[in-house]
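Notebook, bench 3.
Goal today: get a predicted structure for SnoaL-like domain-containing protein from Flavihumibacter stibioxidans so we can plan the truncation constructs. The sequence was checked against the plasmid map this morning, with no discrepancies at the termini. Length recorded as 182 residues. Pasting the sequence as submitted so the record is complete.
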Amino acid sequence: MKKIFAWAACSIFIIACNNEKPAEEPTAAEPLTETAAAPAPVEFADARYTEIGKDGLAALASGDVDRWMSNYADNAVYIWNNGDSAAGKPAISAYWKKRRAEDIDSISFSNVIWLPVKVSKTQANEQPGVWLLGWYMVDVKYKTGKKMVQWMHMATHFDATDKIDRVIHYLDRAPVLAATKK
């Protein structure tokens, strides 16, 4: 019994002696020192890009394709996730004007989430620069009388003059095709 008691007492003593204090977190009064590290690969971008996105959706919803296109560069490319694309501002504008005139009776956007980011170091195939990521619920009434409601995602890239030069639009084409079928 004495051996067990002696062993327990020694163990407690050894544990108590080796009980190091954890490193303290800096307080608000202690500024963090920054090292000269490389810039983050991705960081938040200016909120003005969010305003460009909001204005664009409002213009598209009102049918003002010209106002929506005013934010596009002449060499812009609009890509859908199914592989279709339109290259050049005139082609993108013509596509959307035709869709609004011939297919879409009304369109609205809700539950919109915007995330403007600046990519300084690419991680895959994305272009460096400012991207505006947008998620939203779209509610479309087609000229066929059918409706389509679904979540969509859009990744919008801005060139050095803050004009949109690339859009990647992610949507499920099946509900669109079903609603536009005559």
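Residues 2-17 form the longest helix (16 residues). Strands lie at 42-44, 72-80, 85-87, 104-119, 129-142, 147-158, 164-170.
Flagging this for group meeting.
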